[in-house]
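Shipment paperwork, digital attachment
Item: protein structure file
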Amino acid sequence: MLNIYSEFKQWAKESSKWFMDTKDWFKFETENKSFYVFPADNGDTIEIETYEKGGSFVGSSRNLPAVSWAINYTKEMENE
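Attachment content:
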């Protein structure tokens, strides 16, 4: 069974316009926003930082415990 970090990474790869994976975090982009995702608690929760394309910080969410929460957060931030 995959942890939330691994599951959300798979979703981001399949759902984003652009994706980049590093050893410690991954980044993906949607139509209007860039998202940086970091594992917490050995990948059992995640932290997401959101930026406007071009660099302005929009917000962050920490300790998301489920992939559905992370997907909902991503969709809400995309529409702001």
